[in-house]
Amino acid sequence: MTCEPVNSAFQKIFPVATLVMVDMCKSNLPRGLKRAPAGTVLQNCRCALSFARRFGWPVAHVRSSQDAGRAGISYETIGGFEPARADALFERRTLSCYSSPYFGSVIRETAGAAVIAGFLGPGGALSTVADAIQVGDRITVLSDATLDDISNRIFAEPVISLLRAYTTLNISVLTTAAWLRSVEEIPANIAKLCRLRQNRSQQGAGAPRRAVARSSSGPA
């Protein structure tokens, strides 16, 4: 897929979120790809990143600093997930992405909305979402684009639906395909709204001309 940035005017009306890619490092592949979901996770991460690039969404890359300095640890990025010049880069000190001091401020640049994907490790999504709740950010976890068994069990959609009935949690758990469908519908809805406004504007502009025509023909 060719990633073409959208124009700035479209970005102002298109509701964006920051796509957060977590620990997309080659050091995660040997242990990750031995498990059945890992290949699917990597494929769905590519789909999410491709969409973000195409529509000019902000992208943040978070990597773990827990193993820094240990022998044999490589932070070489998985091919295709190399940060672009405009991307934000963070190192998390704990499981939560918010353990990086400036992570939250970048998320708030997109109205506190973030989409999480990648190799978060056990409990990584849970920890990140817990910190997001404290600051009021809105988080979407791509369930089939994250490798985090603990959080994926906790954040099953029926559990989230139950929580929403009693709280104001801004948490969504979606498959990558469901998320893509939801955001791809937005441009079409915006186009419909623009056409509706244009029609109303044209109707409003036509009314005075008809009134003038009737008034000018009255005295004749």
How does this structure look, described?
The protein contains eight helices and six strands. The chain is α/β, with parallel strands linked by helices and 220 residues long. Strand 4, helix 5 and strand 5 form a beta-alpha-beta unit. The model is unreliable at 1-14 and 207-220 (pLDDT under 50).
Treating each run of at least 4 consecutive H or I residues as one helix, how many helices? 8
Radius of gyration: 23 Å
Instruction: Report the biggest beta sheet as strand number plus sense, adding barrel if it closes.
Output: 6 strands, parallel
The pLDDT mean sits at 76
Topology summary:
Elements: H1 8-13, E1 18-22, H2 29-32, H3 36-54, E2 59-64, E3 88-92, H4 103-108, E4 113-118, H5 124-135, E5 138-146, H6 149-154, H7 157-166, E6 171-174, H8 176-217
Parallel strand pairs: 1-2, 1-4, 2-3, 4-5, 5-6
Looking at this protein, list some descriptive labels.
220 residues; alpha/beta; six-stranded parallel β-sheet; 8 helices; 16% strand; globular
In short:
The protein is α/β, with parallel strands linked by helices. Helix content is 48%, strand content 16%.
